[in-house]
């Protein structure tokens, strides 16, 4: 059981923390997701239809349903054929809030088309007293696999062991 705890921890926090994941991605694609609306606030917006992206800069705050992503910059990249969002990139002092989970990092990349999430640069994911830290967290939602790298530092995880962990109760 203890060997699986870190996997459940990463899955529940990392996937939950940032995912505009499959159900939420449906909302981005116009389907019936948790919320079909994404609200984005920033100081500045540049849209380049030829390049297929929208770049929000300055005090960026994006909200969809119960997920909030904040950072200095947010880039939405669009598929040229379908004109739907296929990649979200948050950069510089990224803060993610989802229900009772929080994550901070330097950069977060969510690829809707591949269903992958990549958090990098001083990653810290917390839920109550439980926490995970490393330099890079990669989540593949298709294969349900996660990797945490220290990249010169150490990977650290702290979970409650005296009772059933709240992270094991996470449900999609």
Please characterize this protein's 3D structure.
This protein has helices at residues 5-18, 22-28, and strands spanning 39-41, 44-48, 53-64, 67-78, 85-98, 101-111, 116-127, 130-140, 145-149, 156-158. The protein is mainly β. Strands 1, 2, 3, 4, 5, 6, 7, 8, 9 and 10 form a 10-stranded antiparallel sheet that branches. Strand 8 and strand 9 (145-149) form a beta hairpin. The longest helix has 14 residues, at 5-18. The protein is globular and about 50 Å long. The model is unreliable at 1-34 and 166-172 (pLDDT under 50).
Helix content: 10-25%
The termini sit apart by 21 Å
The CATH topology turns out to be lipopolysaccharide transport protein A fold
The radius of gyration computed from the alpha-carbon positions, rounded to a whole number of angstroms, is 16 Å
The biggest beta sheet, please?
A: 10 strands, antiparallel
Q: Extract low-pLDDT stretches.
A: 1-34, 166-172
Structural class: mainly beta
Supply database-style keywords.
mainly beta, 10-stranded antiparallel β-sheet, 172 residues, disordered N terminus, lipopolysaccharide transport protein A fold, 12% helix, globular
Briefly say what this structure is.
The chain is mostly beta strands and 172 residues long.
Give the secondary structure arrangement, pairings included.
Elements: H1 5-18, H2 22-28, E1 39-41, E2 44-48, E3 53-64, E4 67-78, E5 85-98, E6 101-111, E7 116-127, E8 130-140, E9 145-149, E10 156-158
Antiparallel strand pairs: 1-3, 2-3, 3-4, 4-5, 5-6, 6-7, 7-8, 8-9, 8-10
